[in-house]
Amino acid sequence: MPRSTPVPALAAPAARVHDSLVLEPRDVRFDWDRLPLHWIPDEPMATHVINVLHLLLPEGERWFVKVFKEALPLIRDDQLREEVLGFIGQEAIHAEAHQEVLDHLLGQGLDPRPYVRQVAWLFRRVLGDKPGLGPARRRENIIERVAFIAAIEHFTAFLGNWALNSPGLDRAEADPTMLDLLRWHGAEEVEHRSVAFDLMVHLDPGYLRRVRGMAVSGPLLVHLWVRGARFLLAADPTLHGRLKPTWREAGRIAKRGLLPDPVGSIRSGLRYLRPGYHPTQEGSSSQALGYLATSPAARAAAGG
Ligand SMILES: [Fe+2]
Ligand SMILES: [Fe+2]
């Protein structure tokens, strides 16, 4: 398989690309048969910190799809409805792509199911649809969950932008199929980074809603990530519980370009709270589309 490489940003204004946003779900396939357990060679910590994505995204992105389908009848703008439908199509495929990695981990002797069961409980029960609400409370409940998703999508775009600009992973000879998964998904996250935010503002333009979304989603994501990394390192049959994740070690690994900088990630969350913030200010749509034009999986999905 050809190695996927970071794509240089082109000088097209992001807002203009966004104006003509047509989101195309790309029905990608990845072959995991030869994926090593530590797909960044000799870097189990970096591998498993990134692997937390596979623990969270199948359930998380299925939840995005459910909430956005519930939100569809509330949308009063045809262009936005089209974008939400495109978003739903892309997230549904993302969830299944990461699910396949989970299944592969299980085949390698690392059983992710105890953690995934907790994640499923969170997204299905705690953050799921609440039957029996009257129309006004139901609408409020949907908008609140859209705001949680808008804040999460800020981080998925941040991580996607990092994946597209992470030559450290190439230097470390990370597995090319996993790199393509991360960069294909990352590119689509950058491509659709405005949709959840625009939907939230369409349903409730109030600043408080945005703050509340980040106040819940930001700490929740950090918590899930730390627990997920601990879980994977403990469950890895080759490590015998000897490796424990620490912030200091994550910072060191980030300096080598194998993880996003933890401090930079938290700063990014704070940018979301700036009054004039819009997701188009972060990342580059033209760089994302540039990667999708060369991604081995996306090209195969397009028949090219
Ligand atoms: Fe996604
Ligand atoms: Fe997304």
SSE arrangement:
Layout: H1 14-19, H2 44-71, H3 78-107, H4 113-126, H5 135-164, H6 167-171, H7 176-191, H8 195-203, H9 207-235, H10 247-255, H11 262-271, H12 285-294, H13 296-301
The structure holds fe (ii) ion (FE2) (2 copies).
- Describe the sheet with the most strands: none
Q: What average pLDDT do the residues reach?
A: 92
First CA to last CA: what distance? Answer: 14 Å
Could you estimate the helical fraction of the residues in percent?
55-70%
> Tally of extended strands?
0
Work out the radius of gyration. 19 Å
Q: Strand-residue fraction?
A: under 5%
In DSSP terms, counting alpha (H) and pi (I) runs of 4 or more, how many helices?
13
The number of domains is 1
Small molecules in complex: fe (ii) ion
User: Tell me, what's the shape?
Assistant: globular
* N to C succession of SSEs: HHHHHHHHHHHHH
Structural class: mainly alpha
Sequence stretches where pLDDT stays below 50 over 5 or more residues: 1-17
